[in-house]
Known about the structure:
Blueprint: E1 14-21, E2 25-34, E3 37-47, H1 62-79, E4 87-91, H2 93-97, H3 101-112, E5 117-118, H4 121-135, E6 141-147, E7 152-158, E8 161-168, H5 172-179, H6 187-201, H7 206-209, E9 215-218, H8 221-232, H9 241-254, H10 267-270, H11 273-287, E10 293-294, H12 299-306, H13 316-327, H14 332-349, H15 358-370, H16 382-391, H17 400-411, H18 430-446, H19 456-459, E11 463-467, E12 470-475, H20 479-482, H21 484-499, E13 503-508
Parallel strand pairs: 1-4, 4-5, 6-9, 9-10, 12-13
Antiparallel strand pairs: 1-2, 2-3, 6-7, 7-8, 11-12
Amino acid sequence: MRPDELTTLQPKGEYFAAVDLGSNSFHLVVVHVQNGNVQIISKVKQKVRLASGLDDDMVLSTEAMERGWRCLASFADRLKNIPSANIKVVATATLRLAVNAHDFILKAEDTLQHKIKIISGEEEAKEIYRGVAFTSTTVGNSLVIDIGGASTEVVLGRDILPIHLYSFNMGCVTFMDRYFADGKLNTENFSAAIAAAKAIIEPNANAFLCFDWQMCLGASGTPQAITDILISQGNRDAIKLSYMKDLLQLCIDAKHIDSLNIVGLAESRRVIFPSGLAILIALFEVLNIKEMNIAGGALREGLIYGMLDNQPLDNRRQQTITGCIKRFHIQSDQARSVTQTALSLYAQMCQYNDICSLDARTLLYTASMLHEIGLHIEYKNYHLHGAYILEHTALEGFTKLQRQCVAELVKYHRQALPAELFQDYPSETQPTLAALLRVLRLAVIIHNKRNGHESLAELEKIKLDIADTEWTLTFPEGWGKENKLVEVELANESWLQYKIGNKLLVKETA
Length: 510
């Protein structure tokens, strides 16, 4: 290839960047947008702890400002080749509060060569909700919480529209300085921090409690830290108050922040973890939150999507799946055939038990469409390659827990099954995942000839009957003669299911 021909390899599309000057950290995210698909290509996060530089008179110290300016100097280099119209820079709680914020902003704008907007708490909450809604598809009313360094945003919304929002004047850095400044971790400090947080939340609690929400999502920070800890302990469950109380006791047992050593807790979050934990416990107790999952984005993503009003982003999940099919060269006809059969069997399965839900169907649909995502690496272990890809790919429109479930379904959709399948998941989730996996495995086997089905009518001829752990597949008369290989594979599947305590019967209509 001649050097001048290399230009044909240059990616098309546009680059966009968002910079968030937070009270704890400064963030930079850069995305590449092509044909409506948004791909994150760079993320930079630096701990600045700007809020720690505020004194009682709300004057920001020179030391804190210098930490911020040094960080922005490195960000400026990354922004040089991105059009100014495609860059958005905002500052949040600390610079809203600082009486000398103008001094910081003047030099920061000169460093970045870009205007900085100090946004209100309400604007911040709206952008956070937008970032969550566009990266973690919500169902019905959703409660979104983001604990920042100096403020905490709580938003109740439906789909991409916020219904009610509030920015509370409390954050993990300011609460650290106020209640854990001496580094001591004891019952008294935690009780004082939780009580203070409740006193701030309660005057506005009824505005949220009057709504029913179907899911609660936490945007990064403390919720992400807790999730990382749970996962490191082999727990794939959502965040619950009981887990946080256990973590609170671990903090108290450590007695001092210097001795705090919780498996799964990143060193970068150790110092501010107790204060963030106290705030989140208060939110759970005042707002009667039962469980929380991790959102896929927050303020930075909200800023990005706010600049992409002309992009077709309505169906984020479908767009993500379509993007994966193209990116990883998945044979779309085969994916659709397997998915069609899986959903048909799923519908029949739902007649026999109550584990079916919109979320379960979504997991099955996604795993079916992407089950061959690892094939472009090699065949023998493509299910394992596929699981790895899905665990490490940003699937926009899916929460972290949903992404993990899809990866697990892909991982076990072929070959032998472990005896303790899905044991890392909560007991109420295990039967659902186990049933979805059985459906997916059958659909993949039925289509191993890779010639699809002629019509939906032919799909309807395959019947599924369920009696406890015994599943019976009934095919049209003479089907076995035309599908010898599939028949052999189903016999092998019967043996694999038997080894883990299940039973699969295959027969033809008389």
